[in-house]
Amino acid sequence: MRRVYDFDQTIFRGDSTARFCLFALRRRRRLALALPRVGAAFLKMALGRLSKTQAKQVLFQALLPALPEVDGAVQAFWAENLDRIKPWYLKQKADSDLIISASPEFLLEPVCQQLGISLIASPVDKHTGEYRGPNCHGEEKVRRYQALYGQEDFEFYSDSLSDDPMAQLACRAWMVRGDALSPWPLPSSIP
Model's pTM, two decimal places? Predict the structure, then answer.
Protein backbone atom coordinates (compact mmCIF):
# COMPACT_ATOMS: atom_id res chain seq x y z
CA MET A 1 0.00 0.00 0.00
CA ARG A 2 1.25 3.47 -0.91
CA ARG A 3 2.17 5.80 1.93
CA VAL A 4 1.38 9.49 1.37
CA TYR A 5 3.03 12.21 3.44
CA ASP A 6 2.60 15.90 3.95
CA PHE A 7 6.08 17.47 3.90
CA ASP A 8 6.55 20.49 6.18
CA GLN A 9 6.56 19.64 9.89
CA THR A 10 5.64 16.07 8.92
CA ILE A 11 8.81 14.54 7.48
CA PHE A 12 10.79 17.82 7.39
CA ARG A 13 11.63 19.76 10.55
CA GLY A 14 10.23 23.23 9.91
CA ASP A 15 8.58 24.93 6.96
CA SER A 16 10.64 24.50 3.78
CA THR A 17 9.21 27.61 2.09
CA ALA A 18 9.96 29.87 5.07
CA ARG A 19 13.44 28.37 5.45
CA PHE A 20 14.13 28.80 1.71
CA CYS A 21 13.03 32.45 1.86
CA LEU A 22 15.37 33.11 4.79
CA PHE A 23 18.15 31.25 2.97
CA ALA A 24 17.61 33.43 -0.14
CA LEU A 25 17.52 36.59 1.99
CA ARG A 26 20.89 35.71 3.51
CA ARG A 27 22.34 35.25 0.01
CA ARG A 28 20.69 38.33 -1.55
CA ARG A 29 20.31 41.03 1.09
CA ARG A 30 18.52 43.36 -1.34
CA LEU A 31 15.53 41.03 -1.09
CA ALA A 32 14.87 42.75 2.25
CA LEU A 33 13.45 45.66 0.22
CA ALA A 34 10.45 43.48 -0.62
CA LEU A 35 9.66 42.61 3.01
CA PRO A 36 7.16 45.46 3.56
CA ARG A 37 5.16 44.44 0.45
CA VAL A 38 5.24 40.77 1.47
CA GLY A 39 4.29 41.63 5.05
CA ALA A 40 1.35 43.72 3.82
CA ALA A 41 0.15 40.81 1.67
CA PHE A 42 0.21 38.41 4.63
CA LEU A 43 -1.58 40.99 6.80
CA LYS A 44 -4.29 41.25 4.11
CA MET A 45 -4.51 37.45 4.13
CA ALA A 46 -4.97 37.45 7.92
CA LEU A 47 -7.74 40.04 7.51
CA GLY A 48 -9.45 37.95 4.83
CA ARG A 49 -8.73 40.38 1.98
CA LEU A 50 -6.31 38.06 0.14
CA SER A 51 -6.34 34.30 -0.19
CA LYS A 52 -3.41 32.25 1.06
CA THR A 53 -2.47 31.55 -2.56
CA GLN A 54 -2.49 35.27 -3.42
CA ALA A 55 -0.32 36.15 -0.41
CA LYS A 56 2.15 33.38 -1.21
CA GLN A 57 2.26 34.54 -4.82
CA VAL A 58 3.28 38.05 -3.68
CA LEU A 59 6.10 36.42 -1.71
CA PHE A 60 7.31 34.31 -4.63
CA GLN A 61 7.00 37.19 -7.11
CA ALA A 62 9.23 39.30 -4.86
CA LEU A 63 11.75 36.53 -4.20
CA LEU A 64 12.23 34.42 -7.31
CA PRO A 65 12.88 37.04 -10.02
CA ALA A 66 15.57 38.55 -7.75
CA LEU A 67 17.51 35.27 -7.59
CA PRO A 68 19.98 35.06 -10.47
CA GLU A 69 19.90 31.25 -10.58
CA VAL A 70 16.87 29.69 -8.87
CA ASP A 71 17.90 26.08 -9.52
CA GLY A 72 21.34 26.72 -8.04
CA ALA A 73 19.81 28.39 -4.98
CA VAL A 74 17.44 25.46 -4.47
CA GLN A 75 20.30 22.95 -4.77
CA ALA A 76 22.39 24.96 -2.27
CA PHE A 77 19.39 25.15 0.07
CA TRP A 78 18.98 21.36 0.08
CA ALA A 79 22.72 20.85 0.57
CA GLU A 80 22.26 22.76 3.85
CA ASN A 81 18.85 21.38 4.84
CA LEU A 82 18.66 17.73 3.79
CA ASP A 83 19.54 16.71 7.34
CA ARG A 84 16.20 18.19 8.45
CA ILE A 85 14.40 15.15 7.02
CA LYS A 86 13.22 13.29 10.12
CA PRO A 87 14.99 10.01 10.97
CA TRP A 88 11.71 8.13 11.61
CA TYR A 89 10.75 8.82 8.00
CA LEU A 90 14.10 7.74 6.57
CA LYS A 91 13.79 4.40 8.46
CA GLN A 92 10.47 3.58 6.81
CA LYS A 93 10.94 5.30 3.43
CA ALA A 94 9.86 3.27 0.39
CA ASP A 95 10.22 3.98 -3.33
CA SER A 96 6.42 4.03 -3.65
CA ASP A 97 6.08 6.94 -1.17
CA LEU A 98 4.34 10.13 -2.27
CA ILE A 99 4.77 13.63 -0.88
CA ILE A 100 1.70 15.86 -1.23
CA SER A 101 2.37 19.42 -0.15
CA ALA A 102 1.30 23.04 -0.44
CA SER A 103 4.98 23.98 -0.83
CA PRO A 104 6.05 24.80 -4.39
CA GLU A 105 7.05 22.04 -6.80
CA PHE A 106 10.31 23.77 -7.78
CA LEU A 107 11.44 23.68 -4.14
CA LEU A 108 10.51 20.08 -3.32
CA GLU A 109 11.32 18.36 -6.63
CA PRO A 110 15.10 18.12 -5.97
CA VAL A 111 14.74 16.62 -2.49
CA CYS A 112 12.08 14.16 -3.65
CA GLN A 113 14.31 13.11 -6.55
CA GLN A 114 17.21 12.65 -4.13
CA LEU A 115 15.00 10.54 -1.85
CA GLY A 116 13.66 8.60 -4.84
CA ILE A 117 9.99 9.36 -4.12
CA SER A 118 7.08 10.98 -5.98
CA LEU A 119 5.68 14.49 -5.51
CA ILE A 120 2.45 16.43 -5.84
CA ALA A 121 2.89 20.09 -4.85
CA SER A 122 1.82 23.64 -5.67
CA PRO A 123 2.59 24.65 -9.24
CA VAL A 124 4.64 27.85 -8.92
CA ASP A 125 6.68 29.23 -11.83
CA LYS A 126 10.24 29.32 -10.51
CA HIS A 127 11.13 32.37 -12.62
CA THR A 128 8.10 34.63 -12.13
CA GLY A 129 6.66 33.36 -8.83
CA GLU A 130 3.19 33.04 -10.38
CA TYR A 131 0.90 30.16 -9.48
CA ARG A 132 0.01 28.04 -12.53
CA GLY A 133 -2.81 26.32 -10.67
CA PRO A 134 -4.39 26.04 -7.22
CA ASN A 135 -2.36 25.90 -4.03
CA CYS A 136 -2.12 22.19 -3.12
CA HIS A 137 -3.86 22.48 0.26
CA GLY A 138 -6.88 20.89 1.97
CA GLU A 139 -9.45 19.57 -0.53
CA GLU A 140 -7.07 20.37 -3.42
CA LYS A 141 -4.77 17.60 -2.16
CA VAL A 142 -7.65 15.13 -2.48
CA ARG A 143 -8.52 16.35 -5.97
CA ARG A 144 -4.90 16.13 -7.17
CA TYR A 145 -4.32 12.72 -5.55
CA GLN A 146 -7.46 11.23 -7.09
CA ALA A 147 -6.64 12.71 -10.51
CA LEU A 148 -3.42 10.65 -10.53
CA TYR A 149 -4.27 7.59 -8.44
CA GLY A 150 -8.05 7.31 -8.54
CA GLN A 151 -9.46 5.40 -5.59
CA GLU A 152 -6.21 3.59 -4.78
CA ASP A 153 -5.87 2.79 -1.06
CA PHE A 154 -3.16 4.62 0.87
CA GLU A 155 -1.87 5.39 4.33
CA PHE A 156 -1.52 9.11 5.20
CA TYR A 157 0.77 11.10 7.51
CA SER A 158 0.48 14.80 8.40
CA ASP A 159 1.08 17.28 11.19
CA SER A 160 -1.94 19.45 10.37
CA LEU A 161 -5.69 19.13 10.82
CA SER A 162 -6.05 21.09 7.56
CA ASP A 163 -5.17 17.75 5.96
CA ASP A 164 -8.29 16.10 7.35
CA PRO A 165 -9.77 15.65 3.84
CA MET A 166 -6.79 13.42 2.92
CA ALA A 167 -6.88 11.65 6.29
CA GLN A 168 -10.57 10.83 5.88
CA LEU A 169 -9.91 9.36 2.42
CA ALA A 170 -7.01 7.19 3.65
CA CYS A 171 -7.32 3.60 4.88
CA ARG A 172 -5.23 4.62 7.87
CA ALA A 173 -3.98 8.08 8.90
CA TRP A 174 -1.36 9.28 11.35
CA MET A 175 -0.96 12.59 13.15
CA VAL A 176 2.72 13.59 13.38
CA ARG A 177 3.92 15.74 16.30
CA GLY A 178 7.69 16.13 16.17
CA ASP A 179 8.86 12.53 15.91
CA ALA A 180 5.77 11.04 17.55
CA LEU A 181 3.04 9.38 15.48
CA SER A 182 -0.46 8.74 16.77
CA PRO A 183 -3.69 7.66 15.07
CA TRP A 184 -5.48 10.50 13.29
CA PRO A 185 -8.06 12.17 15.53
CA LEU A 186 -11.64 11.14 14.91
CA PRO A 187 -13.72 13.88 13.21
CA SER A 188 -15.77 14.33 16.41
CA SER A 189 -12.58 15.18 18.35
CA ILE A 190 -11.39 17.87 15.90
CA PRO A 191 -12.20 21.36 17.20
Answer: 0.91
